[in-house]
Amino acid sequence: MNNMNKSTSTIDIASNSNPTRKRGRPKKEKASTTSTSTTTTTTPMATPPRKRGRPRKIQKSDDIPDYKKIAKIKEYIKKHVPSVTKDTEDNVSEKSKKMAQELWDKVNDYEQKYLG
C-alpha cells in the first residue's frame, strides 16, 4: 500500500508540472515587428537561400606557381611523347605527334613570355 501512494503522488506531480513544455529542439521565433516597407529596385530572391550541410570542397589551383605547372606539363610530354623534344621516330600516331608538338611550342612560348 505504501508503494501505491508513492506511484500516484509522482503521477500527480508530473501532471501538475508545466503543460506547455515540449520535447525536442525549440522552434525559432519569427520576428513579428511591423515596419514600413520601402521600395527597392532589387529583384526578390536575388541570392539563393543558403544550404545547410557540409560545404563543398573547393579545389585550390592557385597554390602551385606557373613555373611548377609548366614543368609538370613538360615532364608529361617528355614521358608520353619523347619524339617532340628529341625529333626521333616513335610508335606514336602523326596526329598525336602534331598535337604534342603544338602543346610543346605553346608551353615554351608561354614560359618565355610570362616567366622568362
Question: What does this entry look like structurally?
Answer:
By secondary structure, this protein is mostly helical. It has a domain at 63-116. 48% of the residues lie in helices and 0% in strands. The protein is built from four helices and no strands. Helix 2 (66-80) runs antiparallel to helix 4 (94-115). It is rod-shaped. The model has no long low-confidence stretch (mean pLDDT 71). InterPro entries: AT_hook_DNA-bd_motif (IPR017956). One of its GO terms (molecular function) is DNA binding. Residues 49-58 have a biased composition (Basic residues).
The share of residues in extended strands comes to under 5%
Rg, Å, rounded: 36 Å
Give the termini separation.
Answer: 98 Å
| DSSP E strands, number | 0
**How many strands, which pairing sense, and closed or not: the largest β-sheet?**
none
Helical element count?
4
What oligomerization state is this entry in?
single chain
- What do the pLDDT scores average to? 71
Structural class: mainly alpha
Shape: rod-shaped
Give the ordered list of helices and strands.
HHHH
Poorly predicted sequence stretches spanning 5 or more consecutive residues: none
Fraction of residues in helix? 40-55%
Region (Disordered): 1-66
Biased composition (Low complexity): 32-43
InterPro entries: AT_hook_DNA-bd_motif
Biased composition (Polar residues): 1-19
